[in-house]
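Sync notes, pocket subgroup
Present: LS, DG
LS reminded everyone that the earlier model was apo-only. Rerun requested with pyridoxal-5'-phosphate included. Inputs:
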Amino acid sequence: MKFAARLAAYQNNGMDALFAGNDPDLIAFAGGYPDPALFPQAELGAALAANTTATTLQYSTPAGAAALRQQLAVRMQRDGIPGTAEDVMLTQGAQQGIDLVARLLLDPGDGLVVEGPTYIGALSAFDSYQPHYYEVPMEADGMDLHALQRVLRKHQVKLIYTVPDFHNPTGAVMSLAKRKALVALANRYDCVILEDAPYRELRYSGVQLPPLRHFDTEGRVIFLSSFSKILAPSLRLGWVNADPALLAPLLALKGGADLETSSVVTHAVASYLQHSDLDAHIAHLRQVYAAKMARMRAALAPLLPAGATLTQPAGGFFLWLTVPGVDLTALVRDVLLPQAHVSIVPGATLSPMGHYRDSARLSFTGVTSAQIDAGCAALGRVLAQVGGAAQVQRL
Ligand SMILES: Cc1ncc(COP(=O)(O)O)c(C=O)c1O
């Protein structure tokens, strides 16, 4: 059998390793999982039951339930994004939004800027459109815009993909100045920005900044978010806000991809938003996740070898570990997974160029406190041996 050329890129994207897991002893710091104990199970269950009707079980429209789009428009207005229900499209998670935007804009060989490192699932979606990647390094305050400008001066770029709030995987937040400057660069060089913001509401400290879409003067920013991290991932529910010139073809592509997002789910979430207090729920998530982050940092930081660094993000799901000179891809494969039974995401899988080999992403949200303590102790023991261990590859 001969597969399409787009499959070639899939062979090595690292998604399998990230989600593989039949090791019963595994402590998984790898996946970006919410804490299952925090799912509002009873309220969502009741909303799903109440909204399973003859109407919601029928086909609907690609844009999705108007009631939910209306509620999302109000939430986005509060966040600095003007617009109505007409400017919103519901998607099957943010992941589908990424895929549809790529489908809208990228022909094989087209220029695509991603942050280095970036979200592995975005690379997985982009790969099938065979773009030409330009990887722009992350800094503590977001994408390196000098590096971006060097790319834009020399090459044609159609799409810039960014996670400005609590970046996956580094946790960084793009500064206010960079938000404005990035939109200005997109205007100047005729690019579209995909602002992927599923962690946006999960801030644990500091002051919230306006989304990129707030600064959008030419309808070039597509704002994308999701209920996965703030309610539950299996709802498979995200949303896009974009200018009508972008939203109309996205709706057409959505129709071709899956016709629509489940009406039962979208009506259930609309009724959850109406009857429950999502903001109070998110405030609780913030408290619990901030404590988990502090716990993981406290457990791991004292065990790091000299020179290693661990970030302290102001929100989101992830810590970013760097152990200069050590090949963490090899360490994960050869020691951490098989011997210590701890999974983390090697940085090289989060870079289309395979950079960041001495870094890795750790998620603190989906694990229990006991798992955080045990997993960090095991990781610390492995890292302590890094200097002498024969099986550790140095870069
Ligand atoms: C940055 C980013 N975008 C998109 C997604 C996909 O989210 P969803 O479950 O809404 O498809 C994730 C999930 O981890 C993510 O981290």
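DG: The two ends are 38 Å apart (CA to CA).
LS: Residues 32, 93-95, 119, 121, 163, 168, 196, 198, 226, 228, 233, 238 surround pyridoxal-5'-phosphate (CB under 6 Å).
Action: DG to write up.
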